[in-house]
Amino acid sequence: MSEKKILRQKMLKELSLLSKLDRKKVETGQQMQLFTTPAFQNAATIGVTISTEIEWDTYTVIKKAWGEGKIIASPKCMVKTKELHYYAWNHQNQIQDGYAGIKEPIPEKTKQIPYSDIDLLIVPGVIFDKRGYRIGYGGGYYDRMLADYTGTTISLCSEQQLIQQIPRESYDLPVEQIITEERILHTSEQNT
Ligand SMILES: Nc1ncnc2c1ncn2[C@@H]1O[C@H](COP(=O)(O)OP(=O)(O)OP(=O)(O)O)[C@@H](O)[C@H]1O
Ligand SMILES: [Mg+2]
After folding, report:
1. Which residue's CA is minimally distant from atom 10 of ligand 1?
2. What atom in ligand 1 is closest to the CA of residue 124?
3. Are 48 and 72 in contact (CB under 8 A)?
4. Cα of 73 to ligand 1 centre, how many Å?
5. DSSP code at position 56
6. Residue 126: is its pLDDT beyond 70?
7. Is the pLDDT reported for residue 192 higher than 70?
8. What is the rounded (10 degree) CA torsion for 25, 129, 115, 79?
9. Which residues line ligand 1 (CB under 6 A)?
10. Which ligand places an atom closest to the C-alpha of 147?
11. Residue 136 CA, ligand 2 centroid: distance in Å
12. Residues 141-159 pLDDT 10s
């Protein structure tokens, strides 16, 4: 098994052991900080996944954004090409269970949004380093997307998910900001 795979499995196991209360504390901290960022405040359109049980809550982020008149676009995994297509949605009846049990917009009920219209992209991941490099769920979906995406990128994680250095491959691309329950890291300013 590759080093990335081992790290990913170990972290997913650790995260699964957190209590509901601990998870809630992390999420509240992340959200409070995210909402203070110019990236969030100035974004007209936000690209964000619809969180599963094992991921940090994004429903609160989605509702806050809607409340401020922002457009929420969520991804649908194109399994054959490993591409992500984003669709704008604003009601529960426009989403359904999709690939790997991840909720995704129903294309017939929503409008596809080009990457260039997404001002802020919230990028999921399992492990991060301070430079913004990440280990995701292993599909390479976000590495492919980030190669074509030019807007602002933020990942939400916990302090526990930060490690010194992620084993990097040529196609791995970093995110610009990492928000934990404690702080906002601007990854290009990190020297360690
Ligand atoms: N830009 C790209 N073009 C083609 N293949 C890519 C690209 N980026 C990554 N891949 C492929 O995707 C696979 C998974 O990559 P990796 O292990 O880094 O996944 P990950 O970063 O955990 O996933 P994700 O990006 O979905 O969060 C690798 O086999 C890699 O070759
Ligand atoms: Mg990668």
Report:
1. 140
2. 27
3. yes
4. 22
5. P
6. yes
7. no
8. -90
9. 4, 125, 135-144, 147, 169, 171-172
10. 1
11. 6
12. 999 999 999 999 999 999 9
Question: Among residues of the chain, what percentage have pLDDT more than 90?
Answer: 98
Q: Quick check: 45 and 69 in contact, CB under 8 A?
A: no
As a 3-state breakdown, the chain gives helix, strand, coil percent values, each rounded to 5, of: 35, 25, 40
Ligand 1 center to 110 CA (angstroms): 27
In order of start, what are the domains of the chain with their CATH numbers?
Answer: 3-164 (3.40.50.10420)
Distance 114 CA to ligand 2 centre (A): 22
Burial-class residue 73 by CB neighbours within 10 Å (0-12, 13-18, 19+): buried
User: Mind listing the pLDDT tens digit for each residue in 18-54?
Assistant: 999 999 999 999 999 999 999 999 999 999 999 999 9
Residue 191 pLDDT? 72
- Which residue's CA lies nearest to atom 14 of ligand 1? 140
